[in-house]
Amino acid sequence: MASSHGTPPVFNNKVIAWIDHRLPIFSYIEKEYHTFPTPRNFNYFWNFGAIATVMLVLMIATGVVLATNYTPHVLMAFDSVERIDRDVPQGWLIRDLHMNGASFFFIAVYVHIFRGMYYGSYKAPRELLWILGVVIFLLMMATAFMGYVLPWGQMSFWGATVITSLFSAIPVVGDSIVTWLWGGFSIGNPTLNRFYALHYLLPFIIVAVVALHVVALHVHGSNNPTGIDPKGPQDTVPFHPYYTMKDGFGVVVFLIVYSLVVFFGPDMLGDAANYIPADPLVTPTHIVPEWYFLPFYAILRAVPDKLGGVIAMFGAIAVLFVLPWLDTSRVRSSTFRPIYKWCMLLLVVDVVVLGFCGANPPAGFWIPLSQAATLYYFVHFLILLPVLGKIERPLPMPPSIADAVLKKKAG
Amino acid sequence: MASSSVPADGHGDPTRRDFLMVATGALGAVGAAAVAWPFINNLNPAADTLALASIEVNVTPIEVGQAITVKWRGKPVFIRHRTEKDIKEAEAVPMSELPDPQTDNSRVTDTAKKVRPEWLIMIGVCTHLGCVPLGNLPGQDKGPYGGWYCPCHGSAYDTSGRIRKGPAPLNLAIPQYLFLSDSLVRIG
């Protein structure tokens, strides 16, 4: 699709050659997934794009099967999910794969995002690639949120109430927007219906954006742990069999961990309150979103003002869109950035701390802790990133990927 | 720019063709917006949802100091039969202490402008992010101001349902209601 590498492939099979002459899908696969020159020094962090793709396919497959037994109606949704769990052949398995699949999809994507940030994969010329990734992340959040509403348990209902009510913070038109989102005066049957429709639609839009993400990736190829561009054939290996094997291995290890949770702790990551049918008149004493939203939920609650909290929470994601321009350093990989490396690792700790803050009631020391963690989050992006790029002295860089690899082997 | 009156660089006076292009484009945009509107408006509440807009409640069985919750438009409505102490406390609060200043009297007036301080009728939805505050049932945490307390994000309301502490920006909302007699109230 992009840069030309190698000569066009010749197909010996006559049928394949006939098709390829008219619709060059085999040439495309050959060029982009076989001979595609890929930096030879990937570490295991580079597995998570492939892992996330596998999880996306798995979520769509299990989701389509679940949809055949699910009923999107306030009186029947909860029971239809219980029926899937108890009566439908292997329904329990498909459902546990789907609900834990969401968690593991987010695990893969969070590691993938960390990889991009630590090794500076978002920097020129990969800014659009990064932005498409943030779009995928946003679509995933919307899809996961609406999917969590479908079982119509107490957390479904009240989580949906809290999150949709965020929009009521918008001045003047906020309440009209919320009524419009709900299709009524509260979360109800119209809301459940539309969330179901969108929950089915959005994954396919994610697939489309992932396709664009991959097209953009294959224009300049992958970044690598040194952040140095490949300078010639000595720096790269063909994608197949080297990285098909390495990705395949990573996917299998990841799926083993995922299977352990699916089979031995399917409700480990969920909230027990969601096995109580939704009751619009009783709010659970402690509402928490799913774990993958907790850091953002903590940021929402850290600001003691309704509109301010909502702005901070959306800002925490919006800041990722401009990340390529906030970072002023020309060095991609944190390996060669002695100060930034620690800031980046501190950000990981910070996000985990925010996660714990989001999981606990907003009282006592959790309030100042979540405020401090929120402050660091924004300081990292808005102050450290632009300033460090100017004042930090990077470590000496190896002349090429091959040099870096061979030196490491020799040392 | 096919017209001969336009110089080759295209920076001449607007021609009849330019006008037609802009007019066609503008009309197309209006048409697209007109077609988009039914799709957007389709998501607004339907007629049957709107039809559930009012209910009537008999308040005779509610003892002084007791409160009930009824469902209106899918939301809980709190009806509290306030004690003398509740009313006195609510009336004694200076306006300067309220984030959303409202007199207690204005919150217990029905649509016929009749004030009934013993009956406080409110939508039981926290104005922060929509949880149902505690305090309507006996034994529930009424919060530091003796009214309601939202466990989700810690907003506390007084005996008039006014916000006193926490992230909620507004007092608990008062629906439109009318006492049809001393025992029957219509909400909505």
How would you describe the overall organization of this protein?
The complex is a heterodimer of chains A (411) and B (188). With 411 residues, chain A is mainly alpha-helical. Helices cover 64% and strands 1% of the residues of chain A. A two-stranded antiparallel ribbon of chain A has the order 1-2. The longest helix of chain A has 32 residues, at 189-220. Chain A is globular, with a radius of gyration of 23 Å. Chain B starts with 15 loop residues before the first helix and ends with a strand. Chains A and B meet through helix 7, helix 8 and helix 12 of A and loops of B.
Write the layout of secondary structure elements.
The complex is a heterodimer of chains A (411) and B (188).
Chain A (H helix, E strand, L loop, with lengths): L13 H9 L2 H10 L2 E3 L8 H20 L9 H10 L4 H28 L8 H23 L4 H12 L8 H9 L6 H32 L15 E3 H26 L29 H9 L3 H16 L1 H4 L13 H20 L6 H26 L9 H10 L1
Antiparallel strand pairs in A: 1-2
Helix pairs in contact in A: 3-5, 3-9, 3-10, 4-5, 5-6, 5-10, 6-7, 6-9, 11-12, 11-14, 11-15, 14-15
Chain B lengths: L15 H26 L5 H5 L3 E4 L8 E6 L2 E7 L2 H9 L26 E5 L22 E4 L6 E3 L4 E3 L11 E3 L4 E4 L1
Antiparallel strand pairs in B: 1-9, 2-3, 3-4, 5-6, 6-7, 8-9
- Computed structural class of chain A: mainly alpha
General shape of chain B: elongated
Largest interface: A-B, 35 and 28 residues
Distance between the termini of chain B: 62 Å
Output the CATH class name of the largest domain in chain A.
Mainly Alpha
Shape of chain A: globular
Strand arrangement across the biggest beta sheet of chain A? 1-2
Helix content of chain B: 10-25%
Unreliable stretches of chain A: none
Query: Which spans of chain B of ≥5 residues are poorly predicted at pLDDT below 50?
Result: none
Structural class by helix and strand composition of chain B = alpha+beta
